[in-house]
Design goal:
This protein has about 200 residues and is mostly helical. About 50% of the residues lie in helices and about 5% in strands. The chain has 11 helices and 2 strands; from the N terminus they run ααβααααβααααα. It has a two-stranded parallel ribbon. Helix 5 packs across helix 9 and helix 9 packs across helix 11. The protein is globular, with a radius of gyration of 18 Å. The protein starts with a helix and ends with a helix.
Length: about 200
């Protein structure tokens, strides 16, 4: 995956940004990490074959090799193994790289930041602000169930995702929080105290 800067070149990117409405979409970084595990590594389920050839080439094979595991079937890694791979061996993967590195919010003055946690409301606001009459209402939404989550509490981690982090050893939880510190602070996200306690 290439950034606009790599595809267009620095000067063309700067010109394009000056004449464009800039919008960044954000998501709780800890939710993104779990989502990547669910999507790329089948949520820890044992697989007799990879989801696709590309999944095997770009995700399974490098992860299993980094973890010194056999790449033969069946395929399976747990969340702790995934986090070890993601943060220590492949930190620049767009599916889990921090937004502060991926979207360069310190270099680009975004006019709007919309949150996946409140996507419907944010898109309605954006449509109104930009005088857009229609938008594709079938926008992909892969956040999973939000039962028991107070809609006014959208910048905290969903309770159903907490279980993934409770299994991490302290050094790895500390690495997760360190990796996403800027995302969490810059975008106003919260980290449950229990996870801070594990990391210390």
């Amino acid at each position: 995956m290439y950034s606009n800067r790599e595809v267009l070149g620095k000067n063309a990117t700067v010109r394009r940004l000056k004449s464009s409405v800039t919008v960044m979409t954000a998501r709780h970084p800890l939710a993104r990490l779990v989502s990547a595990f669910r999507d790329k590594f089948a949520d820890g389920r044992k697989l007799d074959k990879p989801q696709s050839k590309d999944h095997f080439i770009y995700f399974w094979s490098p992860a299993l090799k980094a973890l010194y595991r056999n790449t033969n079937m069946p395929l399976q890694i747990n969340f702790t193994q995934f986090v070890t791979f993601a943060l220590l061996h492949k930190p620049h993967e767009p599916h889990w790289e921090p937004f502060t590195k991926l979207c360069s919010p310190c270099d680009i003055s975004y006019q709007y930041i919309i949150f996946l946690d409140t996507l419907t409301e944010d898109l309605q606001f954006l449509m109104s602000a930009l005088n857009i009459s229609t938008i594709n209402s079938k926008t992909r939404d892969n956040r999973g169930p939000r039962e028991g989550v107070d809609p006014s509490d959208d910048l905290t981690l969903d309770p159903d995702l907490l279980q993934y982090y409770l299994q991490l050893p302290p050094y790895l939880m500390a690495k997760v929080l360190y990796t996403y510190t800027l995302d969490i602070k810059l975008l106003g996200y919260q980290v449950p105290e229990v996870l801070n306690a594990i990391a210390t």
